[in-house]
Amino acid sequence: MHKILWKFVQLAKKEIIQNDFECIFSPHKKIMYGDGTMAEGFLDVQKKLLKCASKAEKWGEIFLHEYNHFIQYLLKTPHWKKYMNYPKDDFFFDWILGKKYNEQTLSKTHELVRNVELECERMTVQMIKKNGLPINLEQYIKTAAAYVYFYNFARKYRVWYKPECPPNKSKNIMALMPKTLNGSFTKMPHKILKAYESYYLNDDRRIYGRKR
Ligand SMILES: [Zn+2]
């Protein structure tokens, strides 16, 4: 592993622990989140835990993403505050799993969760730049954009992706991604929506979905 990144991760870990959180690197490709779904990393503010799968292919990037969620929490950033002040923060995923909510609640929670992820990704990009971290920035930005856009796709089709099929696995999606995260990501351009539709039309690539 690159020395600069290693040093940076050690410092970040120290800061996390100093704030009474646990910071665990689990030697697996995937780890289990509280609700039973698999992930490569997560931050749980109730349990005060940041956990990463240290054998995930891009675990450094996963860690940076979760670490920035931690910083959002610590600094109470504008989008984090809005997200946390909403009565229940996992509405959106509950809905994907089959729970019923009214349109207004759903639209609000979808917007809040997408914005908190976009804010986190913008912060992560700044962190990579500022610290000269050895990460391919153009690739990172496009992967982040593909992830944020997925929230709009998920809202339209009520699906999530299988952990082995994140949107950045699709060359067609990646080719259409912006080079910056300056956009608001509130709307999905037609071409981009089509690329997601053709990639996730395949049942093997998506999970959950409406109970039929
Ligand atoms: Zn996130």
Task: Provide the residue-averaged pLDDT.
Answer: 92
Shape: globular
* Largest sheet data: 3 strands, mixed
**Beta-strand residue percentage:** 5-15%
Radius of gyration: 17 Å
Q: What is the number of helices? A: 8
Provide a descriptive summary of the structure in words.
This protein folds into 2 domains: 1-66, no CATH class; 76-212, no CATH class. The strands form 3 sheets. Strands 1-5-4 form a 3-stranded mixed beta sheet. The longest helix is centred in the middle third of the chain and has 28 residues, at 103-130. The model has no long low-confidence stretch (mean pLDDT 92). With 212 residues, it is mostly helical. Helix content is 53%, strand content 10%. The structure holds zinc ion. Residues 65, 69, 117, 120 line the site of zinc ion.
Can you give me a brief rundown of this structure?
The protein has eight helices and seven strands. It has helices at 3-18, 59-75, 78-85, 91-96, 103-130, 137-157, 171-175, 190-200, and strands spanning 22-26, 31-32, 38-39, 41-44, 49-53, 160-161, 206-207.
